[in-house]
Specification:
The complex is a heterodimer.
Chain A lengths: L2 H12 L8 H12 L4 H11 L3 H10 L11 E6 L2 H5 L2 H12 L5 E2 L5 E6 L11 E3 L2 E3 L4 H13 L5
Parallel strand pairs in A: 1-3
Antiparallel strand pairs in A: 1-4, 2-3, 4-5
Helix pairs in contact in A: 1-2, 1-3, 2-3, 3-4, 6-7
Chain B lengths: L6 H19 L4 E5 L2 H6 L1 H15 L4 E5 L11 E4 L5 E4 L4 H13 L8 E5 L16 H4 L17 H6 L4 H9 L2 H11 L11 H9 L7 E6 L8 H8 L1 H14 L4 E7 L3 H16 L15 E7 L8 H8 L23 E5 H13 L1 H5 L2 E2 L10 E2 L1 E8 L5 E6 L4 H8 L9 E6 L6 E3 L2 H4 L5 H6 L8 E6 L4 H15 L5 H18 L5 H17 L3 H4 L3 H18 L21
Parallel strand pairs in B: 1-2, 6-7, 6-9, 7-8, 12-16
Antiparallel strand pairs in B: 1-3, 3-4, 4-5, 10-11, 12-13, 14-15, 14-16
Helix pairs in contact in B: 3-4, 7-11, 7-14, 8-9, 8-11, 10-12, 11-14, 19-20, 19-23, 20-21, 21-23
The chains are: A alpha+beta, B alpha/beta.
């Protein structure tokens, strides 16, 4: 791990704005800073919180928003909660998989993008909803989902 | 820093009013754009950028605000223009191009453009030619907005705008004219029932905490709204977080508590950022912190974040998450009022519950109790006071967020206000109260159900968090049930095996039935699993987790029969096979 990443981790863990600092808040701060939780971050959180490395891993592995290897350049999320399901989320997921050359959620082999399923992106009135690099898009169709993904893949990486 | 005194509220209010006057009747127009989660999904932030660019091109000075949601989500991005002293003219489904033309013609040119206008709000005499009163829109006209009174109207990140519109008068009143017990009695008299799902009387719950002599006590506000189809908690926090911050402060006063947490899911940026912004300003103005408004009362509030976990909305799991652990429910007893977060007495309230509190204190418990449905003890109806804050999504003409008096019927809400199902199709099914709430058929009897916590419960549904997903005739009840159970399976925290394994087995069976491979025995097997989940799970997730299946069997048993006996699909389910297999590690 390079020094710059190491110092981003230290900064995220040690300079949290809120007064209640916990294992979870520290992990979320690291995720916001570098997009994933490397083992160095787990150690930094354990040391800051006076917890064991096992305790920190236990929390990190419980919440599916954490990933443990460096993020892809882009992140595509598609909601499959009931509102989106009723409005055709299944077809959006199929289109996203197709556009990314994937058969399930996960990373593309070229390291460009991650596809994630999400249980609620929060804009149910605009179902079906997807998010690309954390920007919501509602009332998407299989065609518009493909277009949005293609545009994102050609844009500057989000990190 | 000098300690504020009681007189300070008057000076804060005067400053707030001066600023509000300058915004609405000053020397420049005010443009507001809906940028809640629905606004963002529809492209609201792109519209804000386009407005700013067009203003610059025209050399026109105007105030531009990112507001929350007025609730007319179907019309987002919603943009409105207020010329100094004039009415607000609202434009619907605005794109960056439309925004540019609105700036050119209305903001710079002074002439409202008819083409995309949906209505105006303001004095009747000020009506622009040909543009209807927005209150005549079916979705707005019958609302009674208490918790949503400021939503879409004020800049949610500007505490002065909240104060100029009546905010913090209630806290000032409580601190100067009421004892903590009197404040709690007012909430008790209002009949306010918790809006998180259980509908327990809030004043009674506060009493459990108020009676505890511990010097360190916590008020927790739950916005872990993982319920798909429910976005009202986030809607309030992204549109008017200050009403919740004031509400939690009053709750703290009434319970002699000294610390509050507002709990939101990581990644939902508008609710998080805007809530943090008003908390910071409240500290600056002496409305939070030591000796609030010069009184003896001190109270701190902060935002706590959770990772993705539906179960962390359960009250004891939420406490685990605030402590930074896996959000898994705790055993009870001890109850939170004795041993809550960090081992201290705690009281947990839903966002909506706290959002009502300032108005209840300001207008009196009796006023709130006068809205809603009366008690009917013979039929085990306890009475539901106040309003229902409903999120309408799915196959519905006007999707969005509305606040209506309890006691209205589902038919009034779904047809008179929300315009029914589009494309001439038939309304078939309603999914209410989150994934655990189950489904209702859109039968005449069910559409005549009045919005009341106990009436819904008797019908086998939950009004709960207020989400209503509307499904038209194309929706297959078996397929939707499979989707609901897939959600519940994915979100089971795994602590109790009847829930962890029961959900997986239910999903497996429902997938089998969906694929026309189910057998007669499967229905009995599901009921058996459901009984075990209900009996053997620690929290509502497992206890209520069979609801989607039992309610679907109750109302749509014939569709299960068709899949099992006749090997026939009953809707558009044949092409929707997605079912995530990922479970918690």
């Amino acid at each position: 791990m390079d020094d710059a990443t190491q110092s981003l981790i230290a900064d995220a863990v040690n300079n949290q704005p809120q007064s209640t600092v916990t294992v979870l808040s520290s992990l979320l701060a690291v995720e916001d800073a570098i997009g994933y939780i490397p083992k160095e971050a787990v150690e930094a959180v354990a040391s800051r919180m006076d917890a064991t490395v096992n305790d920190v891993w236990a929390v990190a592995t419980f919440y599916p928003n954490f990933r443990f290897d460096p993020p892809m350049e882009h992140r595509v999320e598609v909601c499959w909660g009931p509102s989106c399901h009723v409005m055709g989320a299944g077809r959006i997921i199929a289109a996203a998989q197709d556009a990314l050359g994937l058969s399930d959620e996960g990373d593309t082999p070229d390291g460009k993008a991650t596809l994630r399923y999400n249980t609620c992106l929060g804009a149910c009135a605009h179902a079906p909803v997807m998010a690309i690099d954390h920007h919501l898009a509602g009332r998407v169709t299989p065609e518009s989902a493909r277009e949005r993904i293609a545009t994102a893949l050609q844009s500057v990486p989000s990190h | 820093m000098a300690t504020p005194t009681t007189a300070d509220f008057d000076s804060i209010l005067a400053e707030a009013q001066r600023r509000w006057q300058a915004l609405t009747n000053g020397d420049r127009p005010w443009v507001r754009v809906g940028t809640g989660l629905a606004g963002e999904a529809a492209g609201g932030f792109e519209v804000v950028s386009a407005v700013k660019a067009a203003l610059e091109e025209n050399g026109v000075a105007a105030n531009v605000s990112e507001v929350g949601t007025l609730g007319l989500c179907f019309a987002e991005p919603l943009l409105d223009v207020q010329m100094p002293g004039g009415p607000r003219v609202f434009y619907r489904n605005v794109t960056p191009e439309i925004a540019r033309s609105i700036v050119n013609e209305h903001v710079a040119g002074g002439n409202p453009t008819m083409e995309h206008a949906i209505g105006y709000l303001g004095e009747p005499g000020a009506a622009p030619d040909g543009i209807p009163d927005l209150n005549d829109h079916p979705m707005l006209g019958q609302q009674q907005r208490i918790a949503l009174r400021n939503a879409g109207h004020i800049d949610p990140s500007d505490l002065y705008q909240y104060i100029a519109n009546g905010g913090y008068a209630a806290l000032n009143q409580a601190l100067t004219a009421m004892t903590p017990d009197e404040a709690r009695q007012e909430v008790l008299a209002s009949g306010l029932r918790g809006r998180g799902g259980a509908a327990f009387p809030a004043g009674v719950k506060w009493g459990f905490l108020a009676g505890n002599p511990d010097p360190n006590k916590y008020i927790l506000c739950n916005c872990e709204e993982g319920d798909p189809g429910a976005f009202n908690d986030r809607g309030i926090l992204e549109s008017d977080p200050a009403t919740v911050v004031e509400g939690i402060t009053i709750a703290g006063y009434a319970c002699n508590a000294n610390r509050g947490y507002i709990f939101i899911r990581h990644g939902h940026n508008q609710p998080i950022d805007r809530t943090r912004a008003v908390i910071e300003q409240a500290y600056e103005l002496g409305l939070l912190g030591q000796n609030i408004l010069g009184s003896e009362f001190s109270f701190d509030v902060e935002v706590a974040l959770t990772g993705d976990s539906y179960v962390s909305g359960e009250e004891t799991a939420l406490m685990e998450a605030i402590e930074g652990k896996r959000s898994m429910p705790r055993y009870r007893p001890p109850f939170p009022a004795q041993v809550g977060v960090f081992g201290k007495p705690s009281n947990i309230n839903n966002v909506k519950t706290l959002a009502y509190v300032p108005e209840i204190i300001a207008k009196g418990g009796e006023w709130f109790a006068g809205i809603g449905t009366p008690a009917d003890p013979d039929n085990r109806i306890n009475g539901s006071s106040g309003t229902a804050i409903l999120c309408l999504s799915g196959d519905i003409t006007y999707a969005g967020l509305i606040e209506v008096p309890l006691g209205m019927t589902l038919r009034q809400v779904l047809f008179d206000m929300a315009g029914g199902v589009p494309n001439g199709k038939r309304m078939k099914l309603l999914q209410t109260g989150g994934p655990l709430g189950g489904v209702l058929s859109a039968s005449d009897a069910n559409l005549d159900l009045v919005l009341d916590f106990d009436v819904f419960r008797a019908a086998g549904a939950i009004l709960g968090s207020g989400g209503i997903i509307v499904c038209d005739e194309d929706t297959c009840a078996v397929d939707l049930t499979r989707n609901l159970i897939a959600f519940c399976q994915y979100e089971s925290c795994g602590k109790c095996f009847p829930c962890r394994m029961g959900m997986s087995h239910l999903l497996e069976i429902l997938e089998r039935i969906s694929n026309l491979e189910g057998t007669e025995e499967d229905l009995a097997l599901m009921r058996n699993i459901g009984e075990n989940m209900q009996a053997g799970s620690l929290c509502g997730h497992g206890q209520l987790g069979f609801n989607p299946v039992s309610s679907a069997l109750r109302y749509f048993g014939d569709e299960f029969e068709a899949h099992i006996r006749e090997k026939r699909h009953t809707g558009d389910c044949s092409d929707q096979v997605f079912s995530p297999k990922l479970t918690r590690r």
